[in-house]
Design a protein that fits this description.
CATH superfamily of one domain: Beta Polymerase, domain 2
CATH class of one domain: Alpha Beta
CATH topology of one domain: Beta Polymerase, domain 2
Radius of gyration: 15 Å
Number of strands: 6
Helix content: 25-40%
Strand order of the largest sheet: 3-4-5-2-1-6
Shape: globular
Order of helices and strands: HEEHEEEHHE
Structural class: alpha+beta
Number of helices: 4
Mean pLDDT: 89
Largest sheet: 6 strands, mixed
Strand content: 15-25%
């Protein structure tokens, strides 16, 4: 077999933890702030992880949303089951089944305070790589 024909690109395993981390990386690339992963597996049947991030303008919230969609398609060949809030861009939600993404403007994030609502979840702070 000719080695030049081999595709040696290594793709990450498709699991909810890897998906959540890649989503956080995509938000980080577009300068989202205060990125948090909540491991809700075991306390919720909705998903395994929530990824929560803040954008500081509607344009930045939309750009983060687009970055997340592109990253999930590129890394896992996955599209969201549904997206909510893109037209208003105060709070955009992406539902990937096992991972739900929330990209907020600061006031909306503070008002809905998902971290407090899901206080029983393991909170994983995202750190820049």
């Amino acid at each position: 077999m000719n080695k030049s024909n081999l595709n040696l690109e290594i793709k990450p395993e498709i699991n909810s933890k890897n998906m959540a981390w890649k989503i956080a990386e995509a938000a980080d690339v577009r300068k989202a702030e205060d990125i948090v992963l909540l491991k809700v597996e075991g306390i919720s049947f909705i998903a395994d992880y929530f990824v929560i991030a803040t954008g500081f303008s509607k344009a930045q919230v939309r750009v983060n949303s687009d970055s997340i969609e592109e990253k999930m398609e590129q890394e896992f060949k996955k599209n969201p089951i549904r997206i909510e809030g893109k037209s208003d861009a105060n709070w955009i939600l992406h539902d990937y089944g096992d991972v739900i993404v929330h990209v907020f403007l600061p006031n909306e994030r503070e008002f809905y305070d998902l971290e407090a609502f899901w206080a029983g979840a393991e909170k994983i702070a995202f750190t820049h790589s």
